[in-house]
Design a protein that fits this description.
Blueprint: H1 2-18, E1 26-32, H2 42-49, H3 52-55, E2 58-64, H4 68-76, E3 82-83, H5 88-93, E4 100-105, E5 112-117, E6 132-135, H6 141-152, H7 157-160, E7 162-165, H8 169-177, E8 183-187, H9 188-196, E9 201-203, E10 216-220, H10 221-226, H11 228-247, H12 249-259, H13 270-288, H14 303-315, H15 334-337, H16 342-351
Parallel strand pairs: 1-2, 1-3, 6-7, 6-8
Antiparallel strand pairs: 3-10, 4-10, 5-8, 5-9
Helix pairs in contact: 2-11, 2-12, 8-9, 9-13, 11-12, 11-16, 12-13
Length: about 350
């Protein structure tokens, strides 16, 4: 009898240890630096749908915020552990004592730039003197970009341009259509969404900022020190999701709709919705690719490019104090983050069927 009980207990223990343990999933809140979750969030959706986050012991919740500035603030105040902001607000916050770093560069190329209506007479930045330039919010990096590009063109950003809030997507399109803004200082996926809303755009020459990195996963230094496995898990899932999206954009959008139902457009049939959102996704894919920065590993932070961008921001008054590149980025987790087979993920994406 005792032997049978021991055997039964051992069997039960084995069953429990082999079963998926819901309690083992750590819920992680990640700041999404726009009020609207768009197709640019497909890597998170894919990693959730494919079980990659779960495999690494995390459950990711996206927290929409009004812009990169707010993302940096909420990480600094420990309201959220991670966020995906652009680097400008971090460069401004480091001298104020915010000890946070980007540990995974998501957008190796610069996603920002100035766009005008396709038929606008505006051809260069100086043509926008005295005009309204729309950003998604005053907490967006688009504010910094507009002012920096005005300065590089010889204008006084505080006097010669008017930066105003134009919102996102259809709201932005309405403001452009009505002439309330002459230009936009937003980014690739926003421009694709505006065009999907019926307003054709033309991006002005952005050679001054093209080689600079944009957004990356950010965390406090203390978080990276005490929770490195968790941070790497979030970034690894994102990396795998990125590769999948590049190789199968349509499947990526379908997963996006499933994981984040609020992203499914209303008033469109499914085929049109998917076509439009694939177009938005394609705009972002260009800047996900590693060759944009000349790096070889997913999420790798190019010290050369970040250092050059920090100098650019200082030169044109976006930041007031010099910031060392090593205070902005760290590659300490890149090896762990890349502990997967990219070719296998790409093949899985290409073969994926609903």
């Amino acid at each position: 009898m005792i032997a049978r009980l021991v055997a039964l207990g051992a069997s039960l223990l084995l069953t429990l240890s082999a079963a998926p343990d819901g309690a083992a999933q750590t819920k992680v809140r990640v700041g999404w630096c726009a009020k609207t979750v768009s197709s640019a969030a497909t890597p998170f959706a894919i990693a959730t749908k494919m079980g990659w986050f779960k495999e690494d012991g995390v459950e990711v919740e996206l927290v929409p915020l009004s812009g990169s500035g707010d993302c940096v603030k909420t990480v600094a105040t420990k309201e959220i552990a991670y966020a995906l902001p652009s680097v400008e607000p971090l460069a401004a916050a480091r001298p104020q004592g915010v000890k946070a770093k980007i540990f995974y560069t998501a957008y190796q190329g610069n996603i920002y730039g100035i766009a005008v209506p396709a038929d606008s007479p505006v051809q260069k930045m100086t043509d926008l003197k005295g005009k309204n330039i729309g950003v998604i919010s005053m907490g967006s990096a688009g504010v910094h970009i507009a002012r920096a590009l005005a300065a590089t063109s010889g204008m006084d950003p505080a006097v010669d341009i008017n930066v105003v809030v134009a919102g996102e997507g259809a709201q932005t399109a309405a403001m452009v259509r009505s002439g309330q803004v002459a230009a936009l200082s937003q980014y690739d996926t926003q421009y694709a969404m505006v065009e999907n809303a019926g307003v054709k755009l033309r991006v002005l020459d952005t050679k001054d900022i093209d080689r600079y990195p944009s957004n990356g996963l950010l965390a406090l230094e203390d978080t990276l020190k005490t929770r490195p496995k968790e941070a790497a898990a979030v970034a690894r899932g994102y990396a795998r999701g990125t590769i999948f999206a590049i190789n199968n954009p349509e499947a990526a959008i379908r997963m996006l709709y499933e994981v984040y139902p609020q992203t499914r457009p209303t008033g469109k049939d499914e085929a049109t919705a998917i076509r439009d959102d694939v177009r938005v996704l394609q705009a972002r894919i260009v800047n996900w690719k590693l060759d944009k920065a000349g790096v070889s590993k997913w999420g790798e932070n190019s010290e050369t490019n970040y250092a050059a961008y920090a100098e650019f921001l200082l030169k044109w008054g976006v930041i007031k104090q010099k910031v060392d590149v090593h205070d902005l980025i760290t590659n300490e987790l890149i090896g762990s983050i890349n502990n997967f087979d990219p070719a296998k993920v790409a093949a899985e994406a290409r073969a994926y069927k609903r």
